[in-house]
Design brief:
The protein has 535 residues and is of the alpha/beta class. It has ten helices and 35 strands.
């Protein structure tokens, strides 16, 4: 059987740990679990799923004894045609299930560049690296039979929008009536190819990466060097300390997690890392990776003139969206992702919404009404699931019954024994205030505001507050919060008077990487835009 926990919903009640202790474990509020437990634990897992107060545990359809049939009135009307999903990870797999759930009875094809079935990626930087879960136990549960043609192991290379076909690397063509683009991201490589190829240099994005890095960590390196202190880099550093491995983290910004949560939370994250023995170097970069002359990593030179000796280095410098294959498609696709409307319909280079091309997951760049309709791309588990459901529903619905993607972003991270969760967009803020708990004890709620309204909240081991603040964000509640609440005033936080303080978030930039838009034609019927890519 396969198990997955929606950690955006999990609030740390621990009922699953009590009912199935051989499958679920909890460290403070951080839940860890085996994604593919042995059959002998089946009954215990079923009880745990039924007892979960927030219904966050999802099981493979084969783990359930029966599915109650839909009555005739609630059964969706059948929809035919041919739908192609390009991208067979979380968003693509979820979209396929929703298509069948919502009545799609036509031909369904899933195209993916990896050879294995869709799997869950968050455990790769957590349970897999510690050895708690093998990489092959991260397969996503099949919530329903999708009856699809699976073209795995061959990436898509061209999207012909006018001809309604997808071209594959092996020369095959796949036609469609509607297509969903969900090709996700890949790890950003170290820019020097020769240095990146050194033995001991790793990235972490897929299951093979995780297996190789796990083997390297299990061998007991002298020191691990991590380039980047975002969520992936910080989680890997946490695993290293859990394995009692010396680790140095080099971060260009002023603090870990700065780009996602700003400087106030970043300072707390920095102290958390240092308290756990991490050699954290902020405000500096790695300028070169060094070798022994025989192709093995020996260390790195830093921009401040210092050096670090290490025989394992993990490049955690963010991700690259997999959109190169769309370059000549006529869509508004670039380093920013693929632009779409709130209904997940792709936008072409002229700014017109397409009818048959949809986008979901990490590559989707969409306008969010809560955040002044600004376009954003969210590389979070919860967004991939929610957006895939919206896209799939809209692909088989007429205009009057389509839904907008209005979910408030939620994401989580487990590192150094702390369960970090966020709702909203913390970087869309000008102030932040601690409303519950104690930052000094690393158990608190921080609420972000922008021009007098709440826009986000971050919790450290206080996940039960997340749903409350999600509702506050959705209702455009005033900032700073003026309600009385359990927990009283936050201790050891805030400005001089304990109130709001500057959020210290990074400047919001639009990634363009030199791409220019050119407009040609004079008559309104002839005017067209095109993307001018740098040479």
């Amino acid at each position: 059987m396969r198990v997955i926990v929606d950690l955006t919903r999990c609030q740390g009640y621990g009922q699953c740990v009590f009912l199935a202790p051989d499958v679920f474990t909890m460290r403070d509020e951080a839940l860890l679990y085996d994604l593919q437990p042995a059959d002998e634990h089946r009954e215990h897992v079923l009880r745990a799923a039924a007892a979960c107060p927030v219904q966050a545990i999802h099981l493979d359809r084969t783990a359930l004894s029966m599915h109650p049939p839909l009555d005739r009135e609630s059964r969706p009307q059948p929809v035919g045609g041919r739908i192609v999903i390009v991208g067979a990870s979380l968003a693509g797999a979820r979209a396929a299930e929703v298509l069948r759930r919502d009545g799609f009875t036509g031909e369904l094809t899933m195209i993916g560049d990896e050879t294995r079935e869709p799997y869950d990626r968050p455990p790769l930087s957590k349970q897999v690296l510690t050895g708690q879960v093998p990489p092959e136990h991260t397969l996503l549960p099949r919530l329903r039979e999708v009856d699809a043609e699976l073209l795995f192991g061959t990436p898509a290379t061209v999207l012909d929008v006018a001809g309604k076909r997808v071209l594959l690397a092996d020369g095959r063509e796949v036609g469609f009536d509607r297509v969903l683009l969900a090709t996700g991201t890949r790890a950003r490589p170290w820019p020097d190819a020769a240095e990146a190829a050194l033995h001991g240099v790793y990235t972490l994005r897929d299951a093979r990466d995780a297996a190789e890095l796990r083997q390297a960590l299990a061998a007991g390196p002298r020191r691990v060097l991590i380039l980047g202190a975002g969520f992936t880099g910080s989680e890997i550093a946490s695993v290293c300390r859990e394995l009692d491995l010396p680790v140095t983290v080099v971060e260009r910004g002023p603090a870990p997690l700065y780009n996602a949560m700003g400087g106030v939370i970043g300072d707390i994250a920095a102290q958390l890392q240092r308290d756990h023995g991490v050699d954290l170097r902020t405000g500096t970069t790695v300028t070169a990776l060094e070798s022994d002359g025989a192709g093995r990593l020996t260390g790195a030179r830093l921009s401040d003139g210092s050096t670090v000796e290490a025989d394992v280095a993990v490049v955690a410098l963010g991700s690259v969206r997999n959109v190169e294959w769309l370059r000549d498609s006529g869509l508004a696709a670039g380093v920013w992702g693929v632009t779409c409307d709130a209904g997940c319909r792709a936008v072409d280079v002229n700014g017109l919404v397409t009818d048959d091309v949809f986008v979901a997951g990490d590559i989707a760049r969409f306008p969010h009404p809560i955040y002044e309709y600004q376009f954003m791309s969210l590389e979070h588990w919860g967004n991939a699931v929610a957006q895939a459901e919206i896209a799939a529903h809209n692909m088989v619905s007429d205009q009057a019954h389509r839904w907008p993607h209005l979910s408030v972003p939620v994401f989580w991270s487990t590192q150094f024994g702390v369960n970090i969760k966020s709702v909203g967009v913390p970087t869309f803020a000008d102030q932040v205030v601690f409303t519950q708990g104690s930052p000094a004890e690393r158990r608190f709620v921080a609420v972000y505001g922008y021009q007098g309204r709440i826009t986000a909240a971050v919790t450290f081991d206080q996940a039960m507050w997340l749903e409350f603040y999600q509702h506050q964000i959705e209702q455009a509640a005033p900032f700073p919060p003026d309600f009385r609440h359990v927990g009283g005033e936050a201790r050891g936080a805030g400005g001089a008077d304990g109130g709001p303080m500057p959020a210290r978030v990074p400047e919001r930039l639009v990634a363009a990487a030199g791409v220019t838009v050119a407009v040609t034609g004079h008559d309104p019927a002839e005017r067209r835009a095109s993307l001018m890519h740098p040479r």
